[in-house]
Amino acid sequence: MASIIKKVKKGRPYYYAVESKRVNGKPRIVWQKYLGTVEGILDRTEGTRPKKPKEVVIFEAGGVAALLGIAQRLGVIELLNELVPKRDQGPTVGHYMLLAALNRALSPCSKVEIGDWYDSTILRRLWRLPQSAFTSQRFWDHMGMVSEDAIDAFQERLIERIRSEFGLSSGLLLYDTTNFFTFLATSNQRAAIPQRGHSKAKRHDLRQVGLALLVTEKFMLPLLHQVYPGNVPDVSLFPQIARGLIGRYKQLVGDCEEGTLVFDKGNVSDDAMEVLAVHGMGFVAALSANRCKDLLSIPFERFEAIDGLSGTLACSSVIEMWGVRCRVVVSYTESFFTQQLAGVTNNLIKCQKRLSELQKGLDRWRDGKSRGKRPTLSNVRKSVQEVLSAQFMRDLFQVRLDEEATSQGLHERAPRLRYEVDHAALTRLTNERLGRTLLVTNHVDWSPGRVILAYRGLTRVEESFKHMKNVAFLRWQPAYHWTDQKLKVHGFYCVLGLLLATLARKEAVEAGIELSLPRMLKELSAIREVAVIYPKGTLARPKDHTAITRMSPKQRKLADALNLASVLNQ
After folding, report:
1. How many CB atoms lie within 10 A of CB 32?
2. What is the pTM of this model?
């Protein structure tokens, strides 16, 4: 039977509810619960209503717990600290890099604000590190410790941990590139990576940073990345990164004959393809139209329907390329044909309109109705080339330029422009080019349908880039760094955040929860931890003050699949 006893500590009485039993014939206290002082007991028992809370504090919990749990299973902090050691003082390099990765994945902000974000999450309770430790200057100091060699070693060693903890498919590996514009001033000469180039966001006026990414076909797990100068074209970058791709390929695939690297035609060069062939790497790639032109113009009678691919026809041949036997597949897709035909039609209309305006301007000048510098054949020729710069347009227009006398006299001559659409060329383009894609693989035993499906998987890399350009989650921009080393570290923790998120989605999908990556992160981020702060002395234990917000059925399933409780209860 329980009883109440008094204990005097430092001259002040405290009361406990205890239960005693005989142990080995002697009375012993086997259970006790702290009740408090007399004043505290009376204060809690007065009246019938509970004490009114003083305040409530809400912390971001679900998303942080999910990704932190993945990072703990992989030993991210420990591996980073092993590769980038520092003296035992304050947060480690692993803490800084993981915090940056979690922030980029869940609520991207600047380094000036990241300390406030840290303080608003459960990390403050779990890590027990002060907010003041995560200032922007401290971040910069620790980012400066992370070398490119350490990043490469981390990526390589993390593969085995992912394989043993989560499992990895040794099938298709997808490779592609993108770029992110920056606001780095032109006068800044401390960074060579940000350069002006072909911006996929159409911001050609800004310096940009390139990112190459290798992901798995299933769940798009990023296994290799490289930050590179924004003015380097894909065809020049691919041979440079080929060694890393080969190493990662061997690490993942080993002796698996099905292992295949998939990439786009912009990366194909004779030097790079010969390297892949020499190392025995399986590949599927697109080819530009100027390769195997005779195959690209094969008549429709030789195309066959592909089972399981509606609206797709294909034909193939086995030829020798880059010293190995390859299967070249020409695929025709109705939807691709429609898209290309619409694009060609729109460009025809635009070019015809601009050529007409150019023609009328020359006619006015020749008739003496315009003033200014006399146009020359070379200037007009440049203008025509600019007008016809869109794909296929130079083949579809027949343009003639000559000089004729003006109304001002026989000695004053000016260019005359004549043009017309080449309908025969348009017919050939429609029958032999539009809707067709040229693919090549060194898997000569693969069927055309299998080659086409493998190449179409490349669109999944674009999804990863789309996630990294998302405003709410996994965002790369803005990158407020102006040295190459810092930009590489920025790319490292951005890709690390993407990896943790994709691994969490892999766990969710395998548990039967089909959600897109942004939707999953949104659902997880809606799970909050609430700390109810009561007046001093109301509750004895701090953990009695906290609780998790009510979860929807979908959030509950995610919490169970990702075992959030194991992290939240640490």
Report:
1. 14
2. 0.82
